[in-house]
Amino acid sequence: MHTKSNMRESSSGDKDKNFYEKVLSLNRCSKVVKGGRRFSFSALVVYGDRKGSVGVGYGKAKEVADAIKKASQRAIRSMGPICTQDGTLPHSVIGHFGGGRVLLKPATEGTGVIASGSVRAILEAAGIKNILSKSLGSNNVLSVVRATLEGLGRVRSKSEIYALRRA
Protein backbone atom coordinates (compact mmCIF):
# COMPACT_ATOMS: atom_id res chain seq x y z
CA MET A 1 0.00 0.00 0.00
CA HIS A 2 2.59 2.58 0.98
CA THR A 3 5.45 3.30 -1.37
CA LYS A 4 8.08 6.01 -1.67
CA SER A 5 6.18 7.35 -4.69
CA ASN A 6 5.46 11.07 -4.78
CA MET A 7 2.25 10.70 -6.78
CA ARG A 8 -1.13 10.04 -5.21
CA GLU A 9 -3.41 7.36 -6.58
CA SER A 10 -6.92 8.77 -6.84
CA SER A 11 -10.06 6.67 -6.34
CA SER A 12 -10.66 6.49 -10.09
CA GLY A 13 -7.30 4.74 -10.53
CA ASP A 14 -5.40 7.37 -12.55
CA LYS A 15 -2.36 9.24 -11.22
CA ASP A 16 -3.09 12.76 -10.00
CA LYS A 17 0.09 14.72 -10.71
CA ASN A 18 -1.08 17.92 -8.99
CA PHE A 19 -0.74 16.56 -5.47
CA TYR A 20 2.24 15.37 -3.43
CA GLU A 21 1.76 12.79 -0.70
CA LYS A 22 4.46 11.22 1.44
CA VAL A 23 4.44 8.98 4.50
CA LEU A 24 6.87 10.62 6.93
CA SER A 25 6.81 8.03 9.69
CA LEU A 26 5.22 4.70 10.43
CA ASN A 27 5.39 3.40 14.01
CA ARG A 28 4.36 0.10 15.53
CA CYS A 29 3.02 0.08 19.08
CA SER A 30 2.49 -3.05 21.13
CA LYS A 31 0.19 -3.64 24.07
CA VAL A 32 0.79 -6.69 26.28
CA VAL A 33 -2.45 -8.51 27.09
CA LYS A 34 -3.32 -11.87 28.63
CA GLY A 35 -2.98 -13.81 25.36
CA GLY A 36 0.22 -12.12 24.15
CA ARG A 37 0.84 -8.85 22.35
CA ARG A 38 -1.56 -6.65 20.39
CA PHE A 39 -0.03 -4.43 17.74
CA SER A 40 -1.30 -1.13 16.40
CA PHE A 41 0.24 1.30 13.93
CA SER A 42 0.50 5.06 13.62
CA ALA A 43 1.29 7.00 10.45
CA LEU A 44 2.29 10.60 9.77
CA VAL A 45 1.49 11.83 6.25
CA VAL A 46 2.15 15.13 4.46
CA TYR A 47 -0.09 16.22 1.58
CA GLY A 48 0.26 19.28 -0.64
CA ASP A 49 -0.57 20.76 -4.04
CA ARG A 50 2.92 22.23 -4.75
CA LYS A 51 1.26 25.64 -5.20
CA GLY A 52 1.32 26.99 -1.65
CA SER A 53 -1.08 24.69 0.18
CA VAL A 54 0.04 21.95 2.57
CA GLY A 55 -1.47 19.73 5.28
CA VAL A 56 -0.26 17.07 7.71
CA GLY A 57 -2.26 14.19 9.15
CA TYR A 58 -1.65 11.67 11.92
CA GLY A 59 -3.62 8.42 11.99
CA LYS A 60 -3.67 5.36 14.23
CA ALA A 61 -5.23 1.98 13.47
CA LYS A 62 -4.82 -1.79 13.91
CA GLU A 63 -3.58 -2.19 10.30
CA VAL A 64 -0.86 -0.27 8.43
CA ALA A 65 -3.04 0.49 5.41
CA ASP A 66 -5.87 1.83 7.57
CA ALA A 67 -3.48 4.07 9.55
CA ILE A 68 -2.04 5.55 6.33
CA LYS A 69 -5.50 6.04 4.84
CA LYS A 70 -6.74 7.78 8.00
CA ALA A 71 -3.65 10.02 8.13
CA SER A 72 -4.06 10.93 4.43
CA GLN A 73 -7.68 11.93 4.93
CA ARG A 74 -6.76 14.09 7.93
CA ALA A 75 -3.89 15.69 5.97
CA ILE A 76 -6.25 16.63 3.13
CA ARG A 77 -8.73 18.13 5.61
CA SER A 78 -6.00 20.14 7.37
CA MET A 79 -4.59 21.68 4.18
CA GLY A 80 -4.04 25.41 4.45
CA PRO A 81 -2.36 28.14 2.42
CA ILE A 82 1.15 29.42 3.12
CA CYS A 83 2.77 32.62 1.86
CA THR A 84 5.51 32.15 -0.74
CA GLN A 85 7.40 34.58 -2.93
CA ASP A 86 9.29 33.48 -6.07
CA GLY A 87 9.66 29.88 -4.84
CA THR A 88 10.95 30.85 -1.39
CA LEU A 89 9.76 32.63 1.77
CA PRO A 90 9.52 36.44 2.07
CA HIS A 91 11.43 36.48 5.40
CA SER A 92 13.10 34.26 8.01
CA VAL A 93 11.03 32.64 10.72
CA ILE A 94 11.51 30.22 13.63
CA GLY A 95 8.67 27.78 14.27
CA HIS A 96 8.09 26.38 17.77
CA PHE A 97 6.07 23.37 18.86
CA GLY A 98 6.77 21.51 22.09
CA GLY A 99 10.51 20.72 22.13
CA GLY A 100 10.82 21.25 18.38
CA ARG A 101 12.24 24.45 16.91
CA VAL A 102 12.82 24.91 13.19
CA LEU A 103 14.59 27.84 11.51
CA LEU A 104 13.36 28.62 7.98
CA LYS A 105 15.40 31.10 5.93
CA PRO A 106 14.76 32.34 2.38
CA ALA A 107 17.43 31.48 -0.20
CA THR A 108 18.41 32.76 -3.63
CA GLU A 109 17.43 31.05 -6.89
CA GLY A 110 19.40 27.84 -7.49
CA THR A 111 20.05 27.02 -3.82
CA GLY A 112 17.49 24.23 -3.63
CA VAL A 113 15.85 22.82 -0.51
CA ILE A 114 18.44 22.45 2.27
CA ALA A 115 16.43 20.63 4.94
CA SER A 116 16.05 17.38 6.88
CA GLY A 117 13.74 14.63 5.65
CA SER A 118 10.50 15.66 7.35
CA VAL A 119 10.98 19.42 6.81
CA ARG A 120 11.98 18.77 3.17
CA ALA A 121 8.77 16.80 2.55
CA ILE A 122 6.61 19.66 3.86
CA LEU A 123 8.46 22.31 1.86
CA GLU A 124 8.31 20.26 -1.36
CA ALA A 125 4.59 19.61 -0.83
CA ALA A 126 4.08 23.36 -0.44
CA GLY A 127 6.00 24.09 -3.65
CA ILE A 128 8.97 25.91 -2.09
CA LYS A 129 12.06 25.42 -4.26
CA ASN A 130 14.80 27.49 -2.54
CA ILE A 131 15.14 27.56 1.24
CA LEU A 132 17.61 26.98 4.06
CA SER A 133 16.45 25.30 7.27
CA LYS A 134 17.86 24.03 10.53
CA SER A 135 16.23 21.92 13.21
CA LEU A 136 17.27 23.50 16.52
CA GLY A 137 15.40 21.48 19.13
CA SER A 138 13.87 18.03 19.32
CA ASN A 139 14.55 15.20 16.87
CA ASN A 140 11.00 13.88 17.27
CA VAL A 141 9.46 13.78 13.78
CA LEU A 142 6.02 14.95 14.93
CA SER A 143 7.43 17.91 16.89
CA VAL A 144 9.65 18.98 13.96
CA VAL A 145 6.73 18.73 11.51
CA ARG A 146 4.37 20.72 13.73
CA ALA A 147 7.09 23.35 14.37
CA THR A 148 7.64 23.67 10.60
CA LEU A 149 3.92 24.17 9.98
CA GLU A 150 3.71 26.70 12.81
CA GLY A 151 6.61 28.63 11.31
CA LEU A 152 5.11 28.56 7.81
CA GLY A 153 1.81 29.77 9.26
CA ARG A 154 3.50 32.86 10.71
CA VAL A 155 5.05 33.96 7.40
CA ARG A 156 3.47 37.15 6.03
CA SER A 157 3.88 38.89 2.68
CA LYS A 158 5.10 42.48 2.45
CA SER A 159 1.61 43.74 1.55
CA GLU A 160 0.03 41.96 4.56
CA ILE A 161 2.57 43.52 6.93
CA TYR A 162 1.99 47.00 5.46
CA ALA A 163 -1.79 46.56 5.81
CA LEU A 164 -1.42 45.55 9.47
CA ARG A 165 0.82 48.54 10.19
CA ARG A 166 -1.64 50.98 8.57
CA ALA A 167 -4.59 49.62 10.55
Distance between the termini: 51 Å
* CA-atom Rg in angstroms: 18 Å
CATH architecture of the largest domain: 2-Layer Sandwich
Identify the CATH class of the largest domain. Answer: Alpha Beta
* Percent range of helical residues: 25-40%
Runs with pLDDT <50, length 5+? 1-15
User: Helical region count?
Assistant: 4
| SSE order | EEEEHEEEEHEHH
What's the number of domains? 2
| Shape estimate | elongated
> Spatial order of the strands in the main sheet?
1-2-3-4-5
- Average the pLDDT over all residues and give the rounded result: 89
Q: By helix and strand content, what is the structural category?
A: alpha+beta
Largest sheet: 5 strands, antiparallel
Which topology of the largest domain does CATH recognise?
Ribosomal Protein S5, domain 2
| Beta-strand share of residues | 35-45%
Task: Explain the overall architecture.
The protein has 167 residues and is α+β, with helices and mostly antiparallel strands. It folds into two domains: 7-80, Double Stranded RNA Binding Domain, CATH 3.30.160; 82-166, 2-Layer Sandwich (Ribosomal Protein S5, domain 2), CATH 3.30.230. Helices cover 28% and strands 39% of the residues. The chain has helices at 64-77, 117-126, 141-153, 158-166; strands at 7-9, 15-33, 36-48, 53-61, 80-81, 93-97, 100-106, 113-114, 131-135. A five-stranded antiparallel β-sheet has the order 1-2-3-4-5. A hairpin with a 5-residue loop joins strand 1 and strand 2 (15-33).
